[in-house]
Amino acid sequence: MVASDQIIALSIFLVAYSLIIIRYQFKTYFLGCAALLYVVLGLLPVNLIPNSINWGVLGIFWGTLILAETFIISGVPACLASILIRRSKNLGLAILFVSILSGFLSAFIENVATVLIVAPIALELATRLKKSPVLFIICIAIASNLQGAATLIGDPPSMILASYARMTFNDFFFYHGRPSMFFAVELGAITSFFVLYLFLRKYKERIEKIEVIPIKTLMPTILLIILIIALSLSSIITRGRMEIPGVLCIGVGIISLFFLPPDAERPIEIIRRSDWETVLFLASVFIVVAGLTRVGVFDLLAQKIGNFCRGDLLSAYIVLIVIAIMVSALVDNVPFFTASLPVITALSLNFNYPRTLLLFGVLIGTTLGGNITPVGASANIVGTGILKKKGHPVSFFQFVRIGLPFSLAAVIPAALLIWIFYR
């Protein structure tokens, strides 16, 4: 491809990305327009579009989204949160335990949903004890972003990595006989939750007993367990292909709609208001990245990064993680992470770097880096939006004061563990 195609393709991508930073709520429209321009300008022929979109990843995302919605409606997450609060000795420990629960839930359900489940409980506690809810909601929001990279179904970047690297569900626990992303993320979780404890330990107020929120049905929980077992068993035969996991997730998600409590809205309404916008956003990401790959932009970027690092593996590892953190702190991480995958592959081929090390490192930086700022992740945007509606606006640096040490405490140990086992 001629250099002009590379310039045009990269320019369109950067303009779309810049617009997403300025008007995040229109991210799907901006990236969709970029994908359309790629096709109109001939950067990606129409006949290549179906193969450019990873349908398995879209299936996993949508299916787990529906299952997560029914899981929330079942009342199990809210029940767990209320039980943790009842058993806490003071306010600080209550918020810490609820934040840990948010982190755990985020490994299996959408991060924004986690915030919407737990935030009202934290707001009620703050109101009862006449405390500002700002720190509490920020802790819950950043904790909900923490463990999406721990499992294949936790976050879109994990799904995309699994498809790209032909990883199975089990590979997120042990990859080629070595501890994988799950253990790296959990190590980061332990150290980062200690940071939250340091922020919350001053809240010694006793909590009045709150009512335990009742569970309406256990079926979505049972189906979630069945899905995890099915994905684990399917790892034996799928060899990293996403079609079977995608069908499994869609199937379990649809089945869960038949076990809703009597007072729940109709299944068709749940399907109608599910996050179709993000499905279209992911499809647009795949098309744009396919166009950039076709014109050779990623090979060029890989060569530049390799030359900058002078072929040194540790330098390349650190540089890629730092870039991932910085980008993810400012804008949606899905386009960046998807675009970084072919760059990493080119780097590993041109400079003989271990590809898995760089892939895992960038995933860590991408998923955990979004916790630094209030605009780095959807959960942060929702959390600060809730606070603003309640009359507690959060400044950019007020959020960073908590998010930055939390993120560093999560990224550094996780990246170190990956370096030890995969260099």
From TrEMBL:
Residues 34-352 form the Citrate transporter-like domain. It is a multi-pass membrane protein. InterPro entries: Arsenical_pump_ArsB, Cit_transptr-like_dom, Diverse_Ion_Transporter. GO terms for cellular component: plasma membrane. Keywords: Cell membrane, Membrane, Transmembrane, Transmembrane helix, Transport. It is found in: Cell membrane. PANTHER family: P PROTEIN. Belongs to the CitM (TC 2.A.11) transporter family. This is Citrate transporter-like domain-containing protein. It comes from candidate division WOR-3 bacterium.
